[in-house]
Structure formats: structure tokens, C-alpha cells
Hints:
- The complex is a heterodimer of chains A (137) and B (598).
- Chain A has 137 residues and is of the alpha/beta class.
- Chain A has a single domain (3-136), classed as Response regulator (Rossmann fold), CATH 3.40.50.2300.
- A five-stranded parallel β-sheet of chain A has the order 2-1-3-4-5, with helices on both faces.
- Chain A is 50% helix and 18% strand.
- Chain B is α+β, with helices and mostly antiparallel strands and 598 residues long.
- Chain B is built from 13 helices and 19 strands.
- In chain B, the strands form four sheets. A six-stranded antiparallel β-sheet of chain B has the order 8-7-6-11-10-9, sandwiched between helices.
- Chain B is elongated, with a radius of gyration of 36 Å.
- Chains A and B meet through helix 1 and helix 5 of A and helix 9 and helix 10 of B.
Amino acid sequence: MGRILVVDDEDAIRHSLQRRLEREGHTVHTASAAAAGMEKIQSGEASYDLVITDMSMEEGESGMQMLCAALERDPDIQVIVLTAYGNVRNAVECMQKGASDYVEKNIPDVDVFELLVIKAERALIQRSCRLQARNAA
Amino acid sequence: MCACFVERTESLLNRALTAHDLGAFFQDTLQQALEATGGLRAFLAGIDPATGAMHVLYAAGPGWTESARLNRLYAHNRTEGGITAHAARSGQLWVCPDVHSDPYYVEHFSDVQSEVAVPCFDTEARVCGVLNVQSQRPAAFAPRHCARLKTLAAAAALALALQEYRERERNLVEIGLQLSVTQQKGAFLQSVVGAVQRALRCEACSLFLLDEGTQQLVLRASSSSLAGKEGEVVYTPGEGLTGSVVLTGETIRLEDPRTDPRWKGRHPEFVPDAMGAFLAAPISGHRGIAGVLRASRPRTGPTWFQARFTESDEQMLRAIGAQLGAALENRSALEQQLHNERMAAWGELSARSAHMIGNRVFAIKGDLNELKYQLAESPACSEQVTVLVNGLEQGLYRLEDILREFRDFVVATRIAVSCCSINDLLAEALSETVPALCPVKVCTDFEPNLPALHLDATRLRRAFAELIENAISFQPETGWLKVASCLTGREEMESQVRLNPLQTYLKITFEDGGPGVPKDRKEQIFTPFFTSRVRGMGLGLSIVRGIVEAHYGIIAETGTAGEGARFEIYLPVPRGAQGTGAQLPGKEIKHGTDFGGR
């Protein structure tokens, strides 16, 4: 089970994601803006295992800001970027900068919440592998 | 010839070239004619190039009044009598030493004893006027007098031609101005027709434009008996002389259109018996032939007069047609630009709305996800509730489908070009779109070494993929799809698609063995929200057309319903790109390559 931060300016989305991920047994914190999200990443004793952030909130670059803040705190933090359908250019850029994955919010015929659960699981495994490798080294 | 006459004639000609108003020149010429021959009266008659009617333009000597000048040849035009009419008809100088015994002479002034009429010729060697000198003395005109009068007649002919060219120039300038001013399209076309009528000196000028929807030639402006029937008078391309111009892109110039096998006489400007000279030229622009300009003259002049249009008339009408075509395209480009700006604003709004709707849908999907979980946990869950939840879920997926199409549509006409090979794009679209186990047999026929073009590779691949998907989806059991590329030649002009005969196109064809498209739906399928498929919003082919048109291309469905669909795309090849130098190294694509399929 992981410590997850969900950052999205839409209350309903934030709550849905929190509820769904908590059902999987994760500890989920939320933030409704990039600034609040970054503050949560930077403060706190333990770092988050996974940050799920919307690509564009009040500013277009907010997803990128979250990513940078997270990796600065802990290079092994996993970041999943949420993006609008067809607007993957920024998401790809995030991947190149170190995000572990991205999810398009509106994929027809796909229950994106289930997809997110799977992707979150995969990201957490990746993080524990990297931590183990780091400890072994 | 005496030095005095030569000197005076030279000075006359010099004045003709520099004078703004040629009236004084003609008066001086008549005065010179009287002095050089010892004559009493002289006049210069002009011949209307449209009707052949003669009018006394200028007169000198005693006894002339304005009404005498205007009426002098009035009866002659009807009876074709008089020595002036005889000189015009025969094209020969006619000397009448004794008016009382001349077979052609018609008396006007009773003091006349002898008379001479000298024809003037225009640049096409047609009689354009007659110089007439009268004397109170019998046999007053000796050969030396006639020689001088011939020189003066030639000078007058030059001045008449100069006057004609100036008038034509004025009218052409006016047409140019009309083309550049912004006004309502109907008024604009009507003013062009009026200016063409004056420039060509024709009684009737009509302007037809091809209707984009019906592909019929529709009357849009006329200065003839057809005026008032705009929108009602219609020709099918290929029908009659006017319809032929659209198909061939050639001008048609005839002295008597009724003798031409193409003549149908469906909507003539005059009753068939009165139908005279005919001239029609295409209104052609960058994107093909947009319509026809047609000029005609009635057969009302004297029997000897041929009211034909000249080669220079033909060249002029063709040039006006080309300018008008360009102007119409500019107008539509301007309208397109305004439309694009509105679309851009609309697109911005749409993109924001789509983003917000997408977020809401995503949130609702979250609640739905939770609801499904709760229902699964609850043993009391009724089957009806599950059906409702599934229905909600399907509804949301459908909404996402619509959002996807909507976004694709909004971005379809934004183009980012790079130099690429059409054959590569086609091959990529095929390999991305055709599934490995496809029931449709796919084959290709790509012309090798096609010129590279500046295209938006991503968008065109998307357009090709849509057409390929269409062909496959309409043949679920078994079928075939043939994709071909080539450069168009002259024979393509025969096709159903209206192309500019002066433009080379890269032609791409998608042909399949599906149900095809009924004749009455061939245009409709490219309009947004038209679909015969169950899925999707019906934006697919309108997106394809948006992409093709953003490349200044043309797309049309030319198949036969029941035999299969045939989509033809024509992308204009810029001049200079046709050569072999512009080819891309690209992937080598062989003729007849098979892609997947059974």
C-alpha cells in the first residue's frame, strides 16, 4: 500500500480518485491547486510514493511544476499525469522529464478509474524496486 | 502628292497620337479632305462593330445641321442604298463623277454633282468607316484626289482604331476596378456583365457560375433578355455551347452558333432567327473552372455585315474570365478567412468547453465506478439497477466518443506542413489502419517518383486512415480496397471532378467493393453530422474534406452506387515541383504491394 497525493482543481474528481484509491488500501491525500500540492510534497516527514496530478489546472504548466517539485523532493517518487483526450503533447514532455506514466481522462469504452488503479499499482511496484536497488547499492 | 499635303497630314497624325479628344482630329481631317480635293462637303461615317449600322460621326461643309448629320444615313441602313453603303459593302473606293447617272447614288443635298466614298479598314481588315466627299462640280475627283483621300481615310481608320482601343481600355480599367471593390456579390457580377458588354460592344452578356452543391451552371447576372432569370436559367456541364466551355476550359467563338453541333438553343439571349455572333470563355481560377462568361450579338445589321467577334475580343474575354475567376476566389478566400477567424474563436471556445465537459464526464465516471462497486457489494441489488448503471456507463462512453470527434473536427483545418512523399503517407496510413486479419483484400498502385509536396503529414494520414476505415467498415464479410496514386494528365479533365486544366494535380484514389454512395448523397456525405453508420457523429468525411481543402485540394466521391465507393483526392502540384529534382528519397514502394488482408 502506498502514500498517494492527488492534485486536481475539480472537487468531484479529487474525491472520486481518493475514494477509489482508498478502497484499494492506499493512504490518499489531496490538494486542489498546484501551490497547495507542492507545499504538501515539500513538507511532511516521509515523501509520497505516488503523485497523481492533473496536467493543466489554473495554469497550463501546473502538471510540470508538480513533477519538478516531486522529483526534487525524492527522485524515486512516481508521478502519473492526468490529461485531456488528444492533448498528450505536454504529457509526453512530462514523461521525458521523469513522469512514470500518463492517463487520458476521456478514453471512450474505458473505465479510466480502473485503469488508474492498475497504473498506480504498477508505479508503486516500480518505486519499491527502485528503492530496493538503491538500498542494495 | 504635294509637299504641303504630306506635311499637313503628318502634323494631323501627330496630333491624333497626342490628342485626348479625337473630335478635333476628325474635323481637321475632313477639312484637309476638302482642301486637297476642292470638295464642298465631307463626312466620316462610322460602322457599329456590333450591328453594322452606319452613322455620320463628323461632317464638314455648308448645310449640315445636327439632324442632317444624324439622319444622313438613316434610310441607307435599311435600304442599303447610297454610295457610302456601297463602299462599305464592297470595301472598294467608289467614284461617282455624275450623281444623276450613278446606280447607287441617293440624293441628300440637291447641289451635289459628283461624289467619292473611300472605305476605312480596321486592324482585322474589316470596313470600319467611310470617308465621303462631295462636290458641286461634275467629275471633280481625279485619281490624284482619290490617292489623297485614301491616305486621309487610312489616317481616319487609325484614329478610329485608337478611339476604339481607348474605349476598350476604359472599360477594362472599369472591370479591373469592379473586381477590386467590395460590394454585394450579385451587384458585383452585374457590374462586371455591364462593363464586359461595353468593352465587347455586344448587346448581350451573361454570366454563369457553377453551383458547388449541384455542379450545375447557374445564371448569376445578365444584361440581356435573360436578366431577371438569375438562379433559374441552368445548364448541366457539357450541355450546349455554354456547358461545353466548362468541360473543356476552352473559349468558343462562332459567327453563327446555330450551325454548331453543340448548339442546343435552350436559353439564348435572342430568338434563334436573330442569333448572331457568339463568344464564350471560362471563368477560371486556381481551383478550376468556376463558370462561363458569354457574349452574343443579334443578327440585325445589313446583309453584308458580319457581326463576328474578333480574335482580340476572344483573348480579352478569356483574360476577363481569368481575372474574374481570381477575383471570385479572392472573395471566397476573404470569406474563408472571416469564416476561419470565426471558426478559430469558436474552436477556442469549443476546446475549452470540451475540456470542461471532459472533466465533468471523468468525474461522473468516478461516481459511476463507485456506484458499481457499491452495487456489487450489496446483495439486494436488483437486476434493473444494474441495467440502469450499465446504460449510464454506455451513455458516458458515447459522450466521450462525441468529445473525441468534436476535438478532431475543431483541429482538422489547422495545418502544419513539411515536405513529404504521398506514397509514404499512404503506405503508413495503410499499415496503421488495416488490421492483420482483415476480411478486406487491400492492394495498391502507386506511381513511382511522384514529386514531393508540402503537406501536413499527420492530418493527411488521418484523412487517409478515415477513408480506409470507411472502406473496411462497409465490407464486414469480405471485399477489396484499391489505393492508387498518380499525377493527373489531360485525360483527367474528362472526369467528373471539376479541375483547372492549367494545373497539375496529384491524384489519390480509394476504390472499394462496398455498397457505394447513392447519387443524391454524394455531396451530403461530406457535410458535418451526416452519417449512415451507427457509430460516430458523422464528422468523419467532413474532417477528411476539411483536411484536403486546407491543402487547397479537392475531394469527391465518383463511384457508382451498388458497385462500390470511389473517393478521388486531387492535391495541386505547385509549378516547379513536377520535375524529378523535387523527389524525396523516401521508402521505395513497389507497384501492386499487398497490405495484409486475406
